[in-house]
Each structure stands twice: as structure tokens, then as C-alpha cells.
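agent> Task received from the user: take the single chain below, predict its 3D structure, and emit C-alpha cells. No templates, no multimer pairing.
agent> Plan: (1) validate residues, (2) run structure prediction, (3) serialize to C-alpha cells, (4) report one or two observations.
agent> Step 1 OK, no nonstandard residues flagged.
tool_call: predict_structure(input=
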Amino acid sequence: MILFSNFYDYLGAVFNIKEMIAHNKELHKRVSVLQLQVSNLENLKRENNELRDFLNLEKKTTLKHICAEVIAKERKDFSKSVILDKGNNSGISLDVFVFTGEGLVGRVKEVGKKTSKVILVTDINFKVEAKVQSTNDIGLLTGGERDNTCYMNYLPKASDVKKGDLVVTSGNSKFLPEGIPIGRIRVVIPSEGSFFKKAILDSCIDFRKIKFVLCLTNN
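)
tool_result: status=success, residues=219
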């Protein structure tokens, strides 16, 4: 317990406490500013790393392509898409496929003069022939209801596909090369009185963080 010898000592202690409170508030404010600066620097570093990886991918790929940046993301019910900053004026065409270094992103479904819309591989309306890399079993890949989920349909009943197997593009599509990663099998659904199996996949791409893409061209 603190004892004060007189009223003035008491007032002095009160003022000191007020000064301490004000000082602490100022320190908290400075800490908040520093934390924001650190966060901004970390975001800038991450974006620079993503841009560097993207530029390296662009240099390495032999596929004819157009570079684009994701400027918006859309989700409504089971529809999942992104908007790109390139369109007809840049040479992007309807139905061309889009990918990154991680794998297949989706397919262009709407094209304007300066922007285009890509439905993702996880969109319920997306469809493409694909194969399991380890077994070469062919199936029809479609989007799923949940984020980052795809389905591999019409796998042969006798297929040896298993959890963790990589699913890639089959190469049977005219404008989509073979071997672009799509996703890894999360679970295999056994066939019951059917000639086929079904698998649930996790997409290779984290669509929450996607920033730059390459659009294949038909030329």
C-alpha cells in the first residue's frame, strides 16, 4: 500500500500515472505502426517472390502463351472464376486454357476487349479429359462443390489409383498439352455395381493466392 505524506505528493503521483498511461498509449501506437510496416514488407516480399517465379516459368515454358494478372475473383454458389487484365486486344481467345507453375488453373469462358473471365478447374461447369500419372488411367475431370476440390470420373473399375496419385492433363485435347498437373487424389470411391470408379482430388493450386497466370494461345 502506497502512503502519501501530503496532498502534493498525491497529486504528483496522479500526474505521473497519467503520464505513464499516455506514454504507454504512444508506445502501443508505435508498435501498431511498426507491425503494419512489417506486414507490408512481408506482403511485398511475397509478391516479389511470386513475380520472380512467374517470370522464371515464362522463360522456361515452350508453350505459346500470353501473360496476365488476376485482378478479381468471383464465387457464387458452385461457380468459381477469376478475372484477368487481358482480353481480345492482347490476343486472348475464348476457351483457351490457363495455367501457372503449379498446374492447370482453368479455361477462358468470356472475353472482352481488355479483360477475360476464367472458370477454375474447381468450378462445377469445368470439364476436361485427364489421366492419373502413375497408372495412365484416363477419366473425365470436373469441378467440385467445395473449394479446391475436383472429381475424377469414369476411372476403370480395375484401376489401381490410390490416395496421393497425381492427376495431369491427358494431352488428348487439341489445345492442351500433356502432363500439366491438376491435382492429387484425396480419396477413391469404390464402384458399386458400376463399371467405373470415382476419385476426389485436391487441386494443385491455392486459388486464394493466385496472382499471375499464362494463357495458352490457339496460334
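agent> Step 4: summary for the user.
Residues 1-60 form one domain.
agent> Done.
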